Amino acid sequence: MIPSLRAPLRALTLACMLCAPALAAHAQERYPVKPVRFVNSFPPGGPSDLLARSVAEVLQGEFKQAFVVENKPGAGGNLGAGAVAKSPGDGYTVLFGIDTTFTVNPHLYASMPFRPGELKPLMILASSGLLVGVHPSTGIRTLQDLLAQGRAKPLNFSSGGSGSPGHLAIEAVLRATGVKLNQVPYKGSTPAATAVVAGEVDGGMLATPAMLPFVKAGKVTALAVTSRKRSPLAPGVATVAELGFKDLKHEVLYVAMVPAATPEPVLRMLERALAGALARPDVQARMQALDLQPEGITGADAARRLSELSEYYRQLILATGMKVE
User: Fold this and answer.
1) pLDDT tens track for 37-56
2) Separation of alpha carbons 240 and 230, rounded Å
3) So which residues are the signal peptide here (predicted)?
4) Domain covering 35-128+252-320 assigned CATH 1.20.120.450 in the classification
5) Nearest Cα to 76, choosing from 103, 52, 37, 45?
6) Is residue 293 within a helix (H) or strand (E), and if so which, with residue range?
7) CATH domain 130-248 topology
8) What tens digit of pLDDT does each residue of 111-170 get?
9) Domain map of the chain by residue range?
10) Residue 192 and residue 200: Cα distance in Å, rounded?
């Protein structure tokens, strides 16, 4: 190199290095400059899908940029989570799903399509409980009746599938009370609720929206809900804690996750946007119709909550020998 050019070149290189962070920050300030993908790890029409679409609609209007919901269901949310984990950490791919993909599946599945640490929580968006219901022919009218009858003889309870929230709740009741509940898995909450109505099983612990029409029709007897608060859809049904069984509390958390490399400024921007969306009356009305309670937990608090749940489920799975069929 010509000696007289070395000093100017070094100065230019240094200037570029100093400018790079500023340029990156400027790009993040302008986020998003292209469509954002919301990958929902469960089928269309479910609570996580409808929640993702409600939020996408709000953010699209706020940012004047497309927010596209893409469904990638399978393996208890693993397929969608694996796809997002392999995506660039630039804020343009966000996973919508439920906590069990991260708190249960690693303890149930022999192999996972993503590694711990490849994804991090953007926000715990909402929570919901399950409705404990039985067929009227069982003669069970209260949660106390259920526990007494279940200690005397085994009862068959439907779930939305092995490893589903209903299955986990059944195993938690078995562990906490000694009640004999045999889990009968179905392909989703709707057929599992229909099985209760048909008398194929004694009862079920299932999503409230799936059970409530049958409760209102007198075809299912509602005993309790497993959430911390009463369901907005069934305010007349007490929580398990109100009935004196706080150990039977069981909730599903609806989460938004991003690749671990997503820049902090983009994370903060997305957090603020999601919080604003969840606070809107129209979004809250849609959430209430889905039996979702807003949470809005972010950062270290969200990571801690998921970690504590993961350890709880690890112990539950070990104690009960749960398996994915």
Assistant:
1) 999 999 898 899 999 999 99
2) 9
3) 1-27
4) no
5) 103
6) strand 293-297
7) D-Maltodextrin-Binding Protein; domain 2 (3.40.190)
8) 999 998 999 999 999 999 999 999 999 999 999 999 999 999 999 999 988 888 999 999
9) 35-128+252-320, 130-248
10) 9
